[in-house]
Automatic annotation (TrEMBL):
Name of this chain's protein: Aspartokinase
Keywords from the named record: Amino-acid biosynthesis, ATP-binding, Kinase, Nucleotide-binding, Transferase
PANTHER family: ASPARTATE KINASE, ASPARTOKINASE
NCBIfam families: asp_kinases (TIGR00657), PRK09084.1 (NF006570)
Organism listed in the record: Bdellovibrio svalbardensis
Stretches assigned to coiled coil: none
Keyword Amino-acid biosynthesis set for record: yes
Gene: lysC
SUPFAM superfamilies referenced in this protein's UniProt entry, alphabetically: ACT-like (SSF55021), Carbamate kinase-like (SSF53633)
Reaction catalysis annotation: L-aspartate + ATP = 4-phospho-L-aspartate + ADP
Oxidoreductase recorded as keyword: no
Domain named Aspartokinase ACT: residues: 393-451
């Protein structure tokens, strides 16, 4: 039986007409039924700049950015020789971009809500162009299927947390059945947008930067896809960032649990939330390069054939360590509760944590420091110490917390590097610790050599 495949292409895979045709060719060869696209490379950043400029600078400055975005898309449209209906659709989006920017300019107010509406245009424009690329590739192969542009917002229902909206899974399932039920007939290749959604009230939302992977996974879940493919500009997930270790190797296969840890703890190829929907529906995920579709890429699955102790390592820069101590914690209860309540009230997510009798240390992204109220609130219940310029190093693998001697091997390898905090025991799949930012590269290089290259 034919498989229902959802394929996502990132911004670089949408870079120009040639990239779009190459991506469409990959989708065709894979037998995809649904192609989810990012904005063309650089466009989301340009739209953000447009919103900010329209809000605070002269209209002529805003117009310069509009022209740049316009020119980029017109060039692709003319290279693809866009038919009239799609050209009209693209024109309408250009008009919407100019009107939104003008509205922001007149009000001198670019709210997150307005920004979402503006940013949604990136994906909406690229999807119009990519629909034509897909149609051309289908024609070239004399395939009877047709390419169809679908507005992802009709399906991807979210809450109203503009800027980082949360998909509402059960509505999406119902909307997918209603609007995309025909996918199982395998007569259509749907082209749609990543990153964007819509509230029940009809407002456009986005899922947060880099959210197209997540969109694709949510849509794959909605249509109960058999496979989710994430096509990017690197040939799958590597054992570590090849820019840090030239000997990093592509991983053929990795379990959902390990890949989730890897994405959360710093590997850039997948958006950290991407795997959640795939895990919920047990949909295998393939990560590959649209520029080198022959390269093997990586399969992420529930079950894999081998479970090495250390499969990969990642680092997350710009971390801070916040240590909270109070003598009142001695034999008292409720202190952790109070601390977590404060983090919860400020919607701050904690990554790693260690505790002793009278102190608790947590790692946070350094952007958290911008929230002065958080630190003030914490200071009311404990002495607060903040250390900056740290990197969280994570070793990802299997059975990590049940392997005697692993800690010794790790710390012997980096004996001369000062380790600030260690988290071991909570996860079978992750061993993480903090080092200072300037020693992070050296730490990864040595550990990669010891555990992966050896
Ligand atoms: N275009 C959006 C961004 O640049 C979403 C994505 O590419 O995943 O963040
Ligand atoms: Mg992206």
């Amino acid at each position: 039986m034919a498989k229902l495949i959802v394929s996502k292409f990132g911004g670089t895979s949408m870079g120009d007409a040639e990239c779009m045709l190459r991506s469409a060719e990959v989708a065709y060869r894979q037998g995809s039924s649904m192609v989810v696209v990012s904005a063309t490379s650089g466009t989301t950043n340009d739209l953000i700049a447009l919103g900010k400029t329209a809000e605070s600078q002269s209209w002529s400055e805003a117009e310069k950015i509009i022209s740049k975005i316009h020119a980029r898309h017109v060039k692709i449209a003319s290279d693809l020789n866009l038919p009239t209906d799609l050209l009209q659709a693209l024109e309408t989006l250009f008009e919407e971009m100019a009107s939104l920017a003008k509205g922001i300019h007149l009000l001198k107010d670019c709210s997150v809500k307005a920004m979402d509406a503006l940013m949604s245009l990136g994906e909406r424009m690229s999807s119009v162009l990519c629909t034509e690329a897909m149609a051309q590739v289908l024609r070239k192969h004399k395939d009877a299927k047709s390419a169809k542009l679908v507005d992802a917002r009709d399906v991807l229902r979210t809450d109203d947390a503009f800027g980082k909206a949360k998909p509402i899974t059960k509505d999406i399932e119902a909307l997918s059945n209603k609007h995309l039920g025909y996918l199982r007939d395998f007569k259509t290749v749907v082209v749609t947008q990543g990153y964007i959604g819509r509230t029940e009230e009809g407002m456009t939302t986005t899922l947060g930067r880099g959210g197209s992977d997540y969109s694709a996974a949510i849509l794959a879940e909605g249509v109960s896809a058999d496979v989710l493919e994430i096509w990017t500009d690197v040939a799958g997930i590597a054992t570590t960032d090849p820019r840090i270790c030239p000997k990093a190797k592509p991983i053929d296969e990795i379990s959902f649990k390990e890949a989730s840890e890897l994405a959360t703890f710093g590997a850039k190829v997948l958006h950290p939330a991407t795997l959640l929907p795939a895990i919920r529906k047990n949909i295998p995920v393939f990560v590959g390069s649209s520029f080198d579709a022959e390269a093997r890429g990586t399969w992420v699955r529930k079950e894999v054939t081998d479970y090495p102790l250390i499969r990969a390592m990642a680092m997350r820069k710009k971390q801070i360590l916040v240590t909270l101590s109070t003598p009142e914690m001695l034999h008292a209860h409720g202190f952790l509760f109070q601390i977590f309540k404060i983090f919860n009230d400020h919607k701050v997510s904690i990554d790693a944590i260690t505790t002793s009798e009278i102190s608790v240390s947590v790692t946070l992204d350094d952007s958290t420091l911008l929230n002065k109220r958080l630190i003030a609130d914490l200071s009311e219940i404990a002495d607060v110490q903040v250390e900056e310029n740290l990197t969280l190093i994570s070793l990802i693998g299997n059975n990590i917390n049940h392997t005697p001697g692993l800690g010794k091997q790790i710390f012997e390898t980096i004996a001369d590097i000062n380790v600030r905090m260690i988290c071991l025991g909570a996860s079978k799949h992750n061993f993480c610790f903090l080092v200072s930012e300037d020693q992070s590269t050296e730490t990864i290089q040595r550990l990669h050599k010891k555990f992966v290259e050896a």
